[in-house]
Amino acid sequence: MISGRIKALLYLVILAAGIWAPFEYPAYTFQIALLWLMIVFALTWDILGGQMGYNSLGNIFFFGAGMYVCSVAQIGLYYDVAEYTAHFGAVKVDFTMGQYFTGLFVGLGLAALVSVVAAVIFGWIVFGLRGPYFAIGTLGVAIAAGELIGAWDYVGGGGGITLPSFPGDPEDRSNLFYFLNFALAIVTFLFVRWLYSTRFGLALNAIRDDEQKAEGMGIHTKRYKTIAWSIAAFFLGISGGIFGNMTGFIEPLEVAFPTVTFGIFMVLMVLLGGKGTLWGPVIGAVVFHVIKELTWTYLLGWQWVALGALIIIIVVYFQQGIVGWMMEQWPSMFGIVVEDKSEQAKEEAA
To answer: What is the end-to-end Cα distance of the chain in Å, rounded?
Structure first.
């Protein structure tokens, strides 16, 4: 089993690399920041999909909801949102440094809060479904949200919203949103690591293994499912607010509620790394993001073919994921005790 010292060293290396990366590779700050976002996506999806066995296709809803809530809060604190997003002419508003940061952090807080409230409301509806019906139901929520926002002129409709400009140096802006993503990924990982070590984590696994038996043992399954989804929504709402400001422009279908890109990526990264494990989503996100960036750079036009091939390989030949395969090959590294069948047979014969 991996010792505590090695784990602590690994955490320190990751922390140091995360802090060092944007200064060593300033031209790739956005791409590395996107990697931390992918890790948040994978970790939050695995709370339901891996630990609890509920494969949601609609988690991207909270990402988009957080993005719009944060944007409206940033603008609405100091300006009329409807006029700012109106299509009759460009409106330029200059924010002071104090106004910008106040709006940003108030917006991120509201994004988290509204996403949690939405998770509770929709959870009481969709958690009456199970299996593929649950997956399709959550997908419907995300798709419907994108279409409704696209028809809502108050928030820019299909034309989108241009976010307030950062009142400072462009390099400082890049580093700001990089470290916000980095901090969010670290906090998300540490939180789920703690969560899985509690009785709450055991309850999630009990629901995954046999929900009816879990209910028979007195576990309030719907309550646990709703809380788990709310936790995922909390972090996804914040990530949406950060990403919207990173891009500087948001619109409903391609940026806020991209079900066919980010929505699918969430699932694929966890399957690649290994469902129901702590490090599986992290490793899957890193490997997938590297593959995605390479194919988008060197196989432009064939990137979706490469992505489709990766999905087929994982589903058909590699269902246990990277961490699952490692657990089969080196079980002692993960504290798994495998009995020697030959010794067991000798004992039974004796």
So the answer is: 31
